[in-house]
Amino acid sequence: MQVIGHRGASAVAPQNTLAAFGAACRAGADAVELDVRRTADGALVVLHDARVDATTDGSGRVRALSAAQVGALDAGASFSPAFAGERVPFLADVLALLAAHDVGLLCELKGGWSPREVADVVAVLDGAGMAGRTLLQSFRRRTVRAAREAAPEIPRGLLVEVWTPGVLRACERLAVTSCNPSLRILQRRPGLPGDLHAAGFTATPWTLDDPADWTLAVDAGADGIITNDPGRLRTWLSAR
């Protein structure tokens, strides 16, 4: 059972910051999940929302701001005064941290990406020595397709929020290795991990923070659990 920190250890530190990723590494996470977006000048930053308003002291769309503008934002004070001054990290900085701790990565590409844009991500992964420890994933099938074209050697995953019969066919066409469903899907379809295994895919549900849901995932045979509190999950698994 893989323990995967959702945006780092975002229960104890501001999401998608070096503080959160460092906390996940220290908590014994096998991997972290993060979100990548491009700035107006093409820099790769780690930030979930299309706008910076919710998690920083700034305002505006990430795509409309420069790397310097995004990098200057405070991404910690809104979580707790103790994290004031924590910055929105660049992807390369997070990769250096993960490589130093030998921790894997589920890298979500937010929105629509072209093969050329994905190639920029792959170049940073290669530079950090992290390509072999990374799963590229997205909700957007177009983006997963672009990842396949840009870097067929890097495993891919399809994130799924609503289950339909067409999802399995899409996974086959995209040649993904992992189909990662929401907690709600797992609750409604507890046999889904077994179905995905039979079709040749792994299954890592998101985002599970309650022991009852962890039990559901373990009993269903999930390959990993994406959680905001990897330290607590690691302790719970050890107790089992």
From TrEMBL:
GO terms assigned for molecular function: phosphoric diester hydrolase activity
Domain GP-PDE residue range list: 1-237
InterPro entries: GP_PDE_dom, PLC-like_Pdiesterase_TIM-brl
GO biological process: one example: lipid metabolic process
Pfam family, one: GDPD
Source taxon at top rank: Bacteria
Protein name, UniProt field: Glycerophosphoryl diester phosphodiesterase
